Amino acid sequence: MNAAYFNCPSGIAGDMVVAALIDAGASFPEIKNEVGKIPLSDYRLRTEKVNRSGVEALRFIVDVEEGHQPPRAYRDIRKMIDESALSPAVKEKSQAIFAVLAETESHVHGVPTEKIHFHEVGAVDSIIDIVATCAALNQLKIDAIYSSPLPWPKGSIKTAHGIMENPAPATRLLLEGIPTYPVDVEFELVTPTGAAILKALSTGFGSPPKFKGETKSGFGAGTKDLKEPNVLFVTIGATKTGR
User: Fold this and answer.
1) Which of 53, 95, 49, 92 is nearest to 74 (CA)?
2) pTM of the predicted model as reported, rounded to 2 decimal places
3) Residues facing residue 121 across a β-bridge
């Protein structure tokens, strides 16, 4: 069984997951090809090596043309994925992540999932982050995902709904049932997309599984420089059955 273990000392976001998986061996051209099966426009994908507090890591960047990407309804995103030429495994994982996000937003705003409109999450870059993550996992033949506990920051953050306590309400709900620990950082370390990826796909949280044989590592960079390296670390390898 092939497993991926995400070590998240600086949190997790969709772009960090994609970058870490590419750095660990997933083919960027193949990911671009898979993402291209989704009917989106006015964007460009690229990667670049950066240094985050002394650690060299990879960034996954979605350049989006300003003003061409309106908020999208959950039902439209679901239909977009269903009617695409994505592989069944990528479709299934992508739908699972968006279902978790829709249920969370429904709870936060008190409206049915069918009436949910995504703002940050519905932006083209977040749709791409989710599909690209699932494409990379499929390409690397990952059977199970594990994660370290996640950092819980402090302060407040700016969202599409105004200034919110950090973490924002949706992220707080997504983190229920996931082990966390407090950190002295006033920055959004765990994004809704990052939390939803783990909530939907992770087998468990805590220490790494027992890998056997060779492993591959990937370093995915966050967008900002922090005091500590803003990097998501992934280790990929074969494991014994179970943990």
Assistant:
1) 95
2) 0.94
3) none
